[in-house]
Amino acid sequence: MWWFNRFSVWRNGGRAVRILPGEDTRVRNLDGLIIGGGDDIAPTLYGAELDPAVRFDPERDALEKNLVERAVKRGVPTLGICRGAQMINVSLGGSLHKDIYEIYENASRARTPLPVKDVTIEADSRLADIIQTLTCRVNAIHHQSVSELGSGLSAVAHDRQGIIQAVEANTGPFLIGVQWHPEFLVFDRGQQNLYRALVEAARSTKHHASSASSA
């Protein structure tokens, strides 16, 4: 996933730097932030019980939660992908469905990087403006989803079963989370526009910060 994200950032004019647990990387050194896919988020972060049969990564959880909280506070443009969308929601006080199949019995069990799921996007959302469509077909590599929304977030995309497929900030800087993986949809211009929009927002934020510091 990292290499696909790096390629998508590069082709849209940015340069990606990988952040790993234990590294002294601070939000003030970043112009933009992508929280990518991976293992489940520990349910203890949103007040639920751990499942001993599920693999978690506490160090990554702590790193990403801290990065999201600081990015939101400092207005750093942020894109969450799959787990990353869930982490944005959890970091802002929301919760997750630990297993969507317990809540949505008719949910498709197809888990593939290929576009197999139809998603409907809210017409007045930032996401719709970016990808320039109200319906799209995306991939699905997850079994968790957003439940209660975090503070300041709106659900702006759903699939046919009603599962939340994207969230975004109601106001303020670029803050979007999508449940699918746009990095694998390399030939879909709309999905790749997410990276273009992030890079442009990062460039704009950096320019304003530079202007303010030199004033």
Protein described:
With 215 residues, the protein is α+β, with helices and mostly antiparallel strands. Helices cover 33% and strands 20% of the residues. It is built from six helices and nine strands. A hairpin with a 5-residue loop joins strand 8 (164-169) and strand 9 (175-178). The chain is globular.
Describe the structure in brief.
With 215 residues, this protein is an alpha+beta fold.
Output the strand order for the largest sheet. 1-2-9-8-7-4-5
Count of strand segments: 9
Shape: globular
Q: Give the uncertain stretches in residue-range form.
A: 210-215
Keywords:
alpha+beta; 6 helices; two-stranded antiparallel ribbon; 9 strands; 215 residues; 33% helix; seven-stranded mixed sheet; globular; disordered C terminus; single chain
Describe how the helices and strands are arranged.
Layout: H1 2-11, E1 33-35, H2 58-74, E2 78-81, H3 83-91, E3 96-97, H4 100-103, E4 112-121, H5 126-131, E5 135-140, E6 145-146, E7 153-159, E8 164-169, E9 175-178, H6 189-214
Parallel strand pairs: 1-2, 2-9
Antiparallel strand pairs: 3-6, 4-5, 4-7, 7-8, 8-9
Helix pairs in contact: 2-3
